[in-house]
Backbone:
């Protein structure tokens, strides 16, 4: 996507939230300021932005980037990442826009109606960024998160978002022309007769709870492999369903049923997205993996990263990979102290730890530890693609978690 022109930015004279005049631009600034407790670096970032030290900004799906002039002659490369919406989420968002004529009229006037954002959020689609979603990065040596250069970029782009709310759509994965084209397609598509409503059932967890209240005495369960059986007949031709696929699903269902009867109800609470990752983590083969990626609406690299997260930590591993949270500060302080003492024995030069929410990052060695909601530390390592990947099973001891990745790096 083309860079925004310098004249498109309005640099305010003073005031934290004065970088944005509209409510949606202010929501962007609020997400930035709520994502960190380091007010000093945010203040420096505002100063950098006001001085015009942020170069032309480039917006693409999932990120905005620019060069930011710092104290050194060569400017730094800064970027801020935001998760893109899945195809399913985009369908929901476009349906939400098309459902009300006022939504479309406001967007045509380059305005973001608050009702649209509320309707989309209630449908499970986040259009405006949440504090935990903004992920800044910079080539500078500053350990702040965000550093003053990435903070300056966030403030600078706020004015552009003010003038053009479709920058938010582009960051979420689709630009203005694509959004309007798909909205036009919805208006011109022939109406179809609505299908009869599916019979109402009850959630699997509730069904299990009812059964567990009056559970009969069960015989000893056989091994999961004993449940594997061949189909009595082949699927009808032309359905696109293969016999090996159905047999694999039969074995998977039988294995899950055995675990549920044994008291492990974890799989009852998985979302469709998480269940796709769970199946992929069982190594069903490349063809299955490809279909799971397609049907979940997740990018291949992100899906592979979640699959590794499941293998190292199950459902909690996925939560840790996708969501940041603000833990008990005393836990973070204790962990940081223990890691600093361990690093003093492991490294010849000082190795500063960068702290942000539930994450402690050793930038100089490409290692990150994330504190999960289960109070275990999940080790991550920055791979060649520049992304953080789960690297080892979680551990209650942050030093042990660090050591497991440290050994992988051969240090």
Residues:
């Amino acid at each position: 996507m083309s860079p925004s022109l310098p004249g498109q930015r309005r640099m305010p004279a003073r005031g934290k939230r004065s970088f944005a005049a509209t409510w949606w631009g202010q929501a962007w600034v609020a997400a930035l300021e709520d994502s960190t407790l380091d007010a000093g670096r945010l203040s420096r970032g505002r100063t950098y932005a006001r001085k015009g030290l942020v170069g032309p900004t480039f917006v693409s799906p999932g990120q905005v980037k620019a060069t930011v002039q710092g104290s050194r002659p060569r400017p730094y490369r800064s970027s801020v990442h935001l998760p893109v919406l899945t195809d399913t989420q985009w369908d929901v968002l476009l349906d939400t826009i098309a459902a009300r004529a006022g939504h479309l009229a406001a967007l045509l006037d380059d305005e973001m109606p608050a009702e649209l954002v509320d309707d989309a959020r209630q449908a499970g689609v986040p259009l405006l960024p949440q504090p935990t979603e903004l992920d800044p990065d910079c080539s500078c040596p500053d350990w702040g998160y965000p550093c003053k250069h990435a903070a300056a970029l966030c403030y600078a782009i706020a004015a552009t978002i003010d003038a053009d709310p479709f920058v938010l759509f582009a960051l979420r994965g689709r630009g203005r022309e694509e959004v309007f084209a798909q909205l036009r397609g919805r208006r011109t598509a022939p109406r179809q007769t609505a299908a009869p409503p599916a019979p109402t059932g009850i959630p699997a967890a509730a069904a299990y709870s009812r059964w567990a209240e009056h559970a009969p005495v069960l015989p000893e369960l056989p091994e999961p492999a004993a449940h594997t059986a061949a189909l009595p007949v082949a699927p009808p031709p032309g359905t696109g369903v293969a016999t090996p696929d159905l047999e694999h699903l039969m074995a998977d269902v039988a294995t899950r049923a055995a675990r549920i009867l044994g008291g492990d109800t974890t799989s009852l609470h998985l979302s469709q997205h998480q269940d796709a990752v769970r199946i992929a983590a069982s190594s069903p083969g490349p063809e299955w993996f490809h279909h799971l990626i397609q049907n979940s609406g997740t990018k291949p690299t992100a899906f592979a990263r979640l699959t590794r997260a499941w293998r190292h930590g199950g459902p909690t591993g996925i939560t840790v990979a996708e969501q940041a949270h603000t833990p008990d500060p005393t836990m973070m302080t204790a962990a940081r102290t223990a890691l600093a003492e361990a690093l003093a024995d492991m490294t010849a030069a000082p190795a500063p730890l960068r702290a942000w929410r539930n994450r402690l990052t050793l930038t100089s060695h490409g290692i990150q530890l994330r504190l999960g909601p289960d109070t275990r530390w999940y080790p991550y390592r920055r791979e060649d693609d520049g992304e953080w990947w789960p690297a080892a099973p979680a551990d209650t001891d942050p030093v042990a978690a660090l050591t497991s990745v440290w050994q992988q790096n051969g240090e």
